[in-house]
């Protein structure tokens, strides 16, 4: 088949137009791609945003004097828009409480008109007494058997002890393994049916009598005891090993 020159000329023009169209689309997408990443946050900017969120949480949440607090900002999408803010970043959040596990913090740069919502995980630690080795039922705790360790408050909800003086001299009620947190139910400083000393205090006068514990108790806990001389059952506060104080 033979085509005329005019026909070939028309085909060439159509092909050229199609080629130019594809080149134009390619360049448009390329410019859009480069423009997008030119405004994406750098690693340093992302770290600054995370650090601002973490510092805000640590500085504004209520915590106990003996406790410890840690805050960890979530990973951010590197495609977010951010700049080197000319002034310190502004940070806001709802009221913070130690009972909260997570909080969302707003970090923004008003001058450059951008903001980011950052999830932050809150970890609260509190001092608790733990066993340093295997302790068998009936064992009397000494200073070598226990130590203070910082424990994640959200993972440990039971009643424990924060002072060594509250457990040293106590009797183990069940086997405890190394690293176990010593809970209220694990020990007794005054034990049921145990012979104890009852201190009866009235103003500046203290009388000491013998007695029997009616129930288990730990330091500062109220327990019932029986005066072996009068057989009278009274209530007092555990103040030491095998010792209960009754204030009149």
Automatic annotation (TrEMBL):
CDD domains: SAF_CpaB_FlgA_like (cd11614). Pfam families: ChapFlgA, ChapFlgA_N. The lineage of its organism: Bacteria, Pseudomonadati, Pseudomonadota, Gammaproteobacteria, Vibrionales. NCBIfam families: flgA_cterm. It comes from Candidatus Photodesmus blepharonis. Belongs to the FlgA family. One of its GO terms (biological process) is bacterial-type flagellum assembly. The keyword Transmembrane helix applies. Its main location: periplasm. The keyword Transmembrane helix applies. PANTHER family: FLAGELLA BASAL BODY P-RING FORMATION PROTEIN FLGA. Involved in the assembly process of the P-ring formation. It may associate with FlgF on the rod constituting a structure essential for the P-ring assembly or may act as a modulator protein for the P-ring assembly. It is found in: Periplasm. Residues 129-246 form the Flagella basal body P-ring formation protein FlgA SAF domain. This is Flagella basal body P-ring formation protein FlgA. Keywords: Bacterial flagellum biogenesis, Cell projection, Cilium, Flagellum, Membrane, Periplasm, Transmembrane, Transmembrane helix. GO terms for cellular component: periplasmic space. The chain crosses the membrane at residues 21-38. Residues 49-123 form the FlgA N-terminal domain. The gene is flgA.
């Amino acid at each position: 088949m033979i085509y005329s020159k005019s026909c070939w000329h028309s085909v060439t023009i159509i092909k050229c137009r199609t080629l130019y169209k594809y080149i134009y689309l390619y360049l448009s997408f390329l410019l859009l791609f480069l423009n997008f990443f030119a405004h994406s946050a750098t690693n340093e900017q992302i770290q600054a945003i995370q650090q601002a969120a973490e510092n805000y949480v640590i500085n504004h949440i209520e915590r106990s004097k003996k406790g410890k607090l840690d805050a960890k900002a979530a990973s951010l999408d590197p495609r977010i828009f951010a700049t080197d803010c000319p002034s310190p970043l502004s940070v806001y959040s709802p009221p913070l409480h130690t009972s909260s596990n997570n909080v969302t913090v707003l970090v923004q740069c008003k001058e450059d008109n951008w903001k980011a919502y950052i999830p932050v995980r809150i970890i609260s630690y509190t001092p608790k007494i733990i066993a340093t080795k295997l302790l068998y039922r009936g064992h009397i705790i000494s200073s070598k058997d226990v130590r203070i360790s910082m424990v994640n408050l959200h993972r440990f909800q039971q009643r424990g002890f924060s002072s060594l003086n509250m457990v040293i001299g106590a009797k183990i009620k069940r086997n405890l393994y190394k690293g176990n947190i010593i809970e209220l139910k694990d020990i007794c400083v005054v034990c049921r049916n145990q012979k104890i000393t009852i201190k009866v205090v009235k103003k500046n006068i203290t009388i000491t009598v013998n007695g029997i514990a009616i129930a288990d108790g730990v330091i500062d806990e109220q327990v019932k005891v029986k005066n072996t001389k009068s057989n009278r059952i009274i209530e007092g506060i555990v103040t030491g090993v095998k010792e209960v104080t009754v204030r009149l």
